[in-house]
Amino acid sequence: MTNSWTDIKNTDLVVVMGGNAAEAHPCGFKWVTEAKHHRGAKLIVVDPRFTRTAAVSDYYAPIRPGSDIVFLMALIRWMIENDKVQWDYVKAFTNASFIVKDEFGWSDGLFTGYDEQKRDFDRSSWDYVVGDDGFAVTDPTLQNPRCVWNLLKAHVDAYTPEMVERVCGTPKDRFLKIAEMIGECSSKTKTMTSMYALGWTQHSKGAQNIRGMAMLQLILGNIGVPGGGMNALRGHSNIQGLTDLGLMSNLIPGYLNIPTEKEPDWATYLKSRAFKPLMPGQTSYWQNYPKFMVSFMKAMWGEAAQKDNDWAFHYLPKLDVPAYDMLRMFELMDQDRVNIYFCQGFNPLLAAPNRGKLTRAFSKLKLMVIMDPLETETARFWENHGEYNPVDSAAIQTEVIQLPSSCFAEDEGALVNSGRWLQWHWAAAEPPGDAKLDTWIMAQIFNRVKALYQTEGGVFPDPILNLAWGYADPNEPKPDELAREMNGTALGDVFDPKDAAKMLTAAGKQVKSFAELRDDGSTACGCWIYSGCFNEDGNNMARRDNADPSGLGVHPKWAWSWPLNRRTLYNRASADLNGQPWDPERPIIQWTGEKWEGNDVPDISPTAKPGEVMPFIMNPEGVSRLFSRGMMRDGPFPTHMEPFESPVQNVFNARMRGNPVARVFESDVETFGDASEFPYVATSYRLTEHFHYWTKNNVVNAALQPQGFVELSVQLAEEKGITNGGWVRVWSKRGEIRAKAVVTRRIKPMICDGKPVHVIGIPLHWGFVGAAKKGWGPNSLTPYVGDANIETPEYKAFLVNIEPAVGEAVS
Ligand SMILES: Nc1nc2c(c(=O)[nH]1)N[C@H]1C(S)=C(S)[C@@H](COP(=O)(O)OP(=O)(O)OC[C@H]3O[C@@H](n4cnc5c(=O)[nH]c(N)nc54)[C@H](O)[C@@H]3O)O[C@H]1N2
Ligand SMILES: Nc1nc2c(c(=O)[nH]1)N[C@H]1C(S)=C(S)[C@@H](COP(=O)(O)OP(=O)(O)OC[C@H]3O[C@@H](n4cnc5c(=O)[nH]c(N)nc54)[C@H](O)[C@@H]3O)O[C@H]1N2
Ligand SMILES: [Mo]
Fold first, then answer.
1. Are residues 230 and 301 located together in one domain of the fold?
2. Cβ-contact 292, 270 below 8 angstroms
3. Residues 62, 134: one domain?
4. Where does residue 756 fall: left (phi above 0), alpha (psi -120 to 50 degrees), or beta otherwise?
5. From atom 11 of ligand 1, which residue's Cα is the shortest distance away?
6. Do 40 and 178 share a structural domain?
7. Where residue 740 sits, what CATH number does that domain have?
8. What is the structure's pLDDT at 810?
9. Percent of the chain with pLDDT over 90
10. For the chain, is the Cβ count within 10 Å smaller at the N or the C terminus?
11. What is the pLDDT of residues 139-163, one digit of tens each?
C-alpha cells in the first residue's frame, strides 16, 4: 500500500476492482465502512461476479475477466476528454511534460521493438530525450506532440466507452456512471482510494493492470494524499514482509537486487543502480544504493566482506535468467534438473497452476523436504486421488521427509501488514509434540551443512563458512536478535557527513535509521528499509499506543512502519508546489517556510525547498511516471492484451495470443486450449470461511464450507441442463474436476462483441487432507503461464468446458 488501512477512512470514494475485500479482507474492510460513516464515501465494485463486496457497494459493474486494461485506459481517456484532471498535480508532479524519443511508437497493439522470435522487446526507444547536459528534455507547455501527455492522449484514444462495452462486456451506461463518480475525485479536496488484490495481479499482464490504475490516480492527483493511493491488499499476514525481505529469487532485502551474469563485478553492478538525477536538483534517492548494499554485505559476511574484495560480491549468486520464480522452478523439476526440493510453509500441489505438471515434476525429485505444522497435499502428492492422475503412485520414487514446524501463532516476531506496518506479536502457545520453530530447524540445517564443509571441504565453501552467525545460541537465533540485525548496527563510529567532529552513533550501537548507513564498511544492516524498527529506543514494532493526534488515522506510535515510520508514501505530493496542502482540511504535511512538518514523517528531506525538489524522490527525474520508460517489460503504457486462453480475439491484433512477453515455457505451449473446445471463461477465488488449504483441518471451518463447488449463471445452467446442487464435471486442456454446482444470479453472462461470454467461478479451498469433503480446486485446470514482469500465474482467466456429471468427486 502507498497508504495504510486506517487511512482508508479519509477517502471520498473507494474503488474495489481486482479484489473482493469484504470476503478476503473482512477486518481491513471495516475502514471502508468508517469512510462511508465519516465522510459519506461511496463504494464502487467492478468484478466479474456480484461479490460480497458488491453487495454493500453503491455502484457495481460487471467485467469480463482479463479485460481491465481496456476499462482503465477508457477511464483515463474519459478524464482527459471531460477535463477531469488535477492539472497542477499533473504538470508539477508527473512526467507529462517529458519528451520521448522519436523512434518510440506502436501499431497493431504492439510497442516499438518487438521480436517475435525472442518473444521480447528491444526497449531502447521507450525512453526520454536526454540533452547534452545529461538532463531529460521537457516541454512544460505540453504542446510538443512527443511529450508524454500527448503520447498518452494518442494511446488512450482507441479506448472509447463503446470499446469497453465490446471488450469488457460492461454495459456502456455503467461504465459512464463510474467514470462520472471517479471524475469528481479530480478535485483537490476529493480523493479516491484503489483497493486491489489478485483480480488484477493474477493475469499474464497483471502488473500493467496496476499501472493503469496508478496512472489514473496520478491524473486525479490522488497519490500521496490522505484517502488516496494504490492500496494492494496483501494476502498472508506477512506477505508484505516476504517481499520486503527479498524472499524472491531476484531480490535482496529492501528491494535491492541479485546481480545478473552480465554484472560480474561490483562496479558494473552499481552502474545500473545508483542513478544520477535526470532533472536538475532532484534527489534520486537510489544514489544511496551502495550504502545499503555494503551494509547488507557486512550483515551477511561481517569481517569477510571488505573493500578490497568488493565486499565479497563474488559470494552472491548471479542470475542467468530474469528470475527463478515458482513457475521456472517447477519447470526445471519437470525437466528432471532438480534433485532436492525444500518446501517451507507452502502447499504447491494445490496452490500452483496445472496440478498434472506439478505431480509429474515432483515425481522426478529424489528428495522432498516439507517444513509445515500440518500434513499437506504436497507431502502426499504421490497418492492417486481424484479424476486425473498423470503419474501412477507405484512408479514414484521420491522420498518425502516431513519436518514438523511451529505455526505463526506459536512464533514470536514481526508481521508486516499491507500498510507496511511491522507489528510485533508474541507466541500464544508452545508448538506441540516434536514441532520446532522454523528458525530452529533452519539453524540446524545451516550448522550441519557448515560442519560438513569444515570437515570435508567443497567446491566453494567460503560463503557458508564465513556467514555471520553471531547469535547467543547458534542453534536458535532469537527473534529480537534477528530484528536488531535487520535494523542495523554501527561497526565503527558513525559521523555526520557535514561535520566530521559530530559523532552520530558510536561503534556497537544500533543505527537510528538508514540515514546513518555508510558504504565504507562501518555499518551493517540486514534490510535498509527496516532500519529504525529496533534501534537504541528499543523494539519500536512492539509499540502499542493507539493515539491519533491528527484524527487522520496516522497512529504514529502504534507499531512501526517502513520507511522511517512514515505512514503515507509520497506524502510530499499531498501539498502543492508552494508546500501548502491541496486540501486544507486534511493536511498531512506542509512547508513552514523553513522546513516540512506535519502529521506524518515527510517523504522528502525536511529542508528540501518545495518548488525545487520534487516529491517522487526514488525516481531520478523526481516526478512520477505516466510513461514508465523501459521499466516494464511489456510496455511503457498499459495496452490491452487478452488472457492466454480467451474466448475472443484481441481487437487490436487478432494474431496475438495473450501477453506477447508473458512467462511461458516451450513445454507448455501445447497445453493451452482454445474457445472451440473450451468455450467458457473460468476464474478462481477464495471464501471467507477458509484460509486456502489449511483450515480444512479445522472442523468448524470444514463444517461451514464442507464441499468444493463451482458457480455458474442461471442461463448457462439452463443451456447445459445443470441443476443447482447437482454434480458437474469441469475440464480444461490440462485436467478435470468434479464439484457441486451452485447456480446463481450473482454471475451473469457478459455480452462481448454481441455474443454472450459465460463465466464459471471456482473457489480454491479443497483437496484430500483434513476434515472437509475431498475434491480438487481450480489448479487441476489452470494454465502454466505467468505475468511478464513478476511471473504471477494467470489464475484469474482461463478456458474450460462444463457438463452435468453423475457421481461424486472421487478421492
Ligand atoms: N478468508 C480468507 N481470506 C484471505 C485468503 C483466504 O484464503 N481466505 N487469502 C489471502 C490471500 S493469500 C490473498 S492474496 C488475498 C486475495 O484477495 P482477493 O484478491 O480479494 O481474493 P480473490 O477471491 O482471489 O479474488 C478477488 C476477486 O477478483 C475477481 N476477479 C477475477 N478476475 C478478475 C478480473 O479480471 N478483473 C477484475 N476486476 N476482477 C476479477 C474475482 O471474481 C474475485 O471476486 O486474500 C487473503 N485473504
Ligand atoms: N487458482 C488459484 N490458485 C492460487 C490462488 C488463486 O487465487 N487461484 N492464489 C494464490 C495465492 S495469492 C497464494 S498466497 C497461494 C497460497 O498457497 P499456500 O501458501 O501454499 O497456502 P496456505 O494453505 O496458506 O499454505 C501455507 C502453509 O503454511 C503452513 N504454515 C502456517 N504457519 C507456518 C509457520 O509458521 N511455519 C511453516 N513452516 N509453515 C506454516 C500451513 O500449515 C500451510 O500448509 O495460493 C495461490 N494459488
Ligand atoms: Mo496470496
1. no
2. no
3. yes
4. beta
5. 235
6. yes
7. 2.40.40.20
8. 56
9. 97
10. C
11. 999 999 999 999 999 999 999 999 9
Is residue 795 assigned to a domain?
Answer: yes
The verdict on the CB of residue 409 being under 6 Å from ligand 2 is: no
The C-alpha cell 486525479 sits at 220
- The predicted structure's pLDDT at residue 390: 80
Q: What is the largest CA-CA distance in the chain?
A: 84
| 670 shares a domain with 786 | yes
Which pTM value belongs to this model? 0.98
CA of 747 to the centre of ligand 2 (A): 27
Whether the pLDDT of residue 388 is over 80: the answer is no
Q: Of 597, 578, 577, which Cα lies nearest the Cα of 587?
A: 597
Q: How many domains does the chain have?
A: 3
Task: Give a yes or no: residue 254 inside a domain.
Answer: yes
Q: For residue 213, give the CATH number of its domain.
A: 3.40.228.10
- 15-43 pLDDT, tens digit per residue, is 999 999 999 999 999 999 999 998 999 99
Q: Is residue 345 within 6 Å of ligand 2 at its C-beta?
A: yes
Tell me which of 236, 372, 686 to substitute to probe ligand 2's pocket, judged by most ligand atoms within 8 Å of the beta carbon.
Answer: 372
**pLDDT tens readout for residues 467-499:** 999 999 999 999 999 999 999 999 999 999 999
By three-state DSSP, how is residue 787 classified? Answer: coil
**Pocket of ligand 2 contains residue 770 by CB under 6 Å:** no
CB within 8 A of 159, min separation 6: which ones?
Answer: 70, 73, 74, 76, 77, 640
What pLDDT score does 105 carry?
98
Report the b/e string of 767-791 with b at 16+ CB within 10 A: bbbbebbbbbbbbbbbbbbbbbbbb
Mean pLDDT calculated for residue range 780-789: 97
Q: Domain for residue 33, yes or no?
A: yes
Percent of the chain, pLDDT > 70? 99
Asked whether the predicted pLDDT for residue 275 surpasses 70, the reply is yes
Domain boundary residue among 207, 237, 267? 237
Looking at the structure, tell me whether residues 305 and 196 fall in a common domain: no
Residues in contact with ligand 1 by the CB-under-6-Å rule are 17-21, 24-25, 46-49, 51, 63, 65-66, 68, 197-199, 233, 235-236, 683, 685-686, 688, 690-692, 796-797
Which listed ligand is nearest to 701 at the C-alpha?
Answer: 1
End of a domain among 531, 565, 600?
531
Give me the domain span that covers residue 60: 5-237
**Span 776-791, mean pLDDT?**
96
Nearest CA to ligand 1 atom 47: 24
Atom of ligand 1 at shortest range from CA of 203: 35
What's the grid cell of residue 316? 552472491
Do 679 and 765 share a structural domain? yes
Considering the domain architecture, whether residues 262 and 135 belong to the same structural domain is answered as no
Q: What is the pLDDT of residues 205-224, one digit of tens each?
A: 999 999 999 999 999 999 99
- Answer whether 198 contacts ligand 2 (Cβ < 6 A): yes
Do 51 and 161 share a domain, yes or no?
yes
What whole-number distance in Å separates Cα of residue 287 and Cα of residue 216? 29
Q: How far is the CA of 715 from the centre of ligand 1 (A)?
A: 25
What are 710's strand-pairing partners?
Answer: 741
What average pLDDT does the segment 587-615 reach?
Answer: 97
- Is the torsion defined by CA of 469, 474, 480, 483 positive or negative? positive
